[in-house]
Structures are given as C-alpha cells and as structure tokens.
Fold this protein.
Amino acid sequence: PSIPENSQWGIFLRNHDELTLEMVTDEERDYMYSEYAKDPRMKANIGIRRRLAPLLENDRNQHELFTALLLSLPGSPVLYYGDEIGMGDNIWLQDRDA
C-alpha cells in the first residue's frame, strides 16, 4: 500500500512478538517447528519465540550480513534490543498468560 509522501516504512528482521505461523498450512507450520523450534519451549501460541542470533545459528557472518541488508534498505531500520550484540534465547520465560 502507498503511504504519505512524508512517511516511510519501519523495517526489521525480528520484532518483539513471536513469529506467527497462523497464516501457513499445517504442513508448513510443522516444517517451521521442526527447523526453528525443536524444543517445545521455543513455541508460543501458534508461533515461534526465538531471537535473531539463535535463528541464524549464532553465525556472526550471517548476522552481520542480515544487519547490513537491513541498514541498506529504504525505510527506518528497527533493531530489537539485544540484536546488536547477538543476544540469545531465554526459552524458560513464561508465556504471556495475563
């Protein structure tokens, strides 16, 4: 969709929420879980709760490449806290039960 001329999109590699999988087929969801949420604690609702660095298998070169791409795209880059230092997962945190 078009946006006002004096605006731009915010772009990000990961955001603060889980990676939602509610819009994919059951087969695609099962594949995503098997690849990116091998531990059941990595799942949240119908999604995956993982941070960027672990999703990239803590590969610094990949992380730097993805960040360089983010910073080179048009729009306002958004870095989720901890992504700049390769922060890992804390899969032991409770889900949002409130």
In short: The mean pLDDT is 90. The first helix runs from residue 26 to 36.
